[in-house]
Amino acid sequence: MTVSLLRVGIGFGLASIIAIPLGFCMALNLTSRNFLFPFFNFFRPIPPIAWMPLAILWFGIGHGPAVFLTMIAALFTILFSTMMGVEEISKEHLNIARCFQASKWLTFKEVIFPASFPSLFHGLRMGFGLSWMAVVGAEMIASTSGLGHMINVAQDSLRTDIVIIGMFTIGFTAYFCDFIFKKIGAHFMIWRDYRA
User: Fold this and answer.
1) Of 102, 131, 136, 150, which residue is 20 to 30 A from 12 by alpha carbon distance?
2) Based on the number of CB atoms within 10 Å of its own CB, is 2 exposed (0-12), middle (13-18) or buried (19 or more)?
3) Residue 142 sits in which domain range?
4) Taking the CB of residue 47, how many other CB atoms lie within 10 A of it?
5) Is residue 146 helix, strand or coil?
């Protein structure tokens, strides 16, 4: 389980580092949006598991493919949630910032980021769940460790008990991580009464 969580943590972290700045850039800059949006929108419907053959060719067997798939699984959800959060900001709020002659950085810091944070955070929460699902599939195919590999070996050995234990471990870990996300959301978004 520790190995699986490590892979999810790395893949999810990479996805967040890439997707959040890109999401803001595409939402705030029309040129970037027109150039990048068709590219990401084209690849978004492709299931993460479909990337597995390429991931194996590029990274071999082990950590590489699993980390890559967890990153791909979370990337698009975080990216588009960030964009949506910015696009849903009330124009009145932006106009008030302009009236006070706020700089672009101050407008971003005090208006755009706080207003888009709920959508961004929801994307992070959903992205983590998708990463967790992707890593299990990746470990079943291209790994010699982790929960997915354990379930695969147990299936070959006809050990139904270990398969069920693995499934319960996956479910419990996902539930616990989502609970942590919920608590973080409740802490940072008191005004939204965050209960989802």
Assistant:
1) 150
2) exposed
3) 2-192
4) 12
5) coil
Contact 120, 108 (CB under 8 A): no
What one-letter code names the amino acid at 46? Answer: I
What distance in Å separates the CA atoms of residue 57 and residue 148, rounded to the nearest whole number? 20
CATH code for the domain in which residue 140 is found: 1.10.3720.10
Q: Determine the Cα–Cα distance for residues 116 and 85; give it in Å rounded to an integer.
A: 4
pLDDT digits 0-9 by tens, 55-69:
888 888 878 888 999
Structure-token match 């008191």, residue found: 190
Give residue for tokens 């970037």.
32
**What one-letter code names the amino acid at 171?**
G
**What is this structure's pTM?**
0.84
pLDDT for 56 equals 86
Spatial CB neighbours of 195, under 8 Å, sequence gap ≥ 6: 182, 186
Closest CA to 26 of 84, 65, 71: 84
| C-alpha to C-alpha distance for 133 and 174, rounded to whole angstroms | 9
**Sign of the four-CA dihedral 147, 11, 9, 15:** negative
Q: Which two tokens stand for residue 153?
A: 């070996």
For residue 60, give both structure tokens. Answer: 């071999």
Tokens of 14: 């990479």
- At residue 45, the 3 state secondary structure works out as coil
> CB–CB of 59/95 below 8 Å?
no
Alpha-carbon span 95 to 55, nearest angstrom: 46
Tokens 């700089």 belong to: 103
